[in-house]
Amino acid sequence: MDEIVVTLFRTLIVFLVLVILFRFMGKKELGEISLLDVIVSLLVAELAVISIEDTSISMVKGFAPVFLLIFLQGMLGTIGLKNQSFHKLVEGTPIIMIEKGEIVEENLRKQGLTLADILFQLRRENVSDLREVEYAILERSGVLSVFKKGDNSFTLPLVLDGEIQENNLEIVNKTKNWLITELQKIGYSQMENILYCSYMNEEFHIQKKEHGA
Fold it and tell me: Where is the YetF C-terminal domain (predicted)?
């Protein structure tokens, strides 16, 4: 009976601590969960089970590695916010899987996907013919974003947090020099002052960083 009470008590403590920790990690939609989030969540879950089952381990000792994992995730996230190259290394980058109605076979192989996988994702988006697709992009979360031909909502960021997105420039058939020149024409000479910049219908949408950001 005592063992049951102890187990229930430890379960309650573990539950409350995990709720607090995951609240600290911040809210994310299911589709936005990254590979790093998955790894941390799996490790935390395993460590939590050990803390509940092994009563010979104190709660403090059992949660020490959990706190370390959460700290590391937060630290990596902070570094990623300040350094896009590091963020890409840890989280990966979106990959074009379909361009103007044609499968990008090289990217398909690199991602270890089959044509059947892509077609399945297209059917989920109510797309039955590849020719309907202008672009299909595999996001970092593993979700396939599909943009149909004639879809005016399709736009890509050309500058994120002060850094030029050269991959996206290639997609829209523009160059880095073109972007710098065009932004200078409208008064933006320093990329580091731009939080977000996209280009659609020959117009820029730009948001400047707040002072001190």
Answer: 82-199
174 and 200, same domain (yes or no)? yes
Output the six-digit token pair for 58.
């104190």
The pTM score is 0.58
DSSP letters of 114-164?
Answer: -HHHHHHHHHHTT---GGGEEEEEE-TTS-EEEEETT-TT---EEEETTEE
**Which tokens hold the place of 80?**
């990623």
Nearest of 154, 96, 138, 144 to residue 121 by alpha carbon: 144
What residues make up the domain containing 31? 2-90
Number of H helices and E strands in the chain, helices first, is 8, 8
Query: Over the stretch 69-101, which tens digit does the pLDDT of each residue have?
Result: 888 888 887 887 777 677 777 777 788 899 889
For residue 138, the SS3 value is strand
Q: How far apart are CA 92 and CA 85, in angstroms?
A: 10
Residues 19 and 84 in one domain: yes
Same domain as 196, residue 180? yes
CATH number of the domain that residue 174 is part of: 3.30.240.20
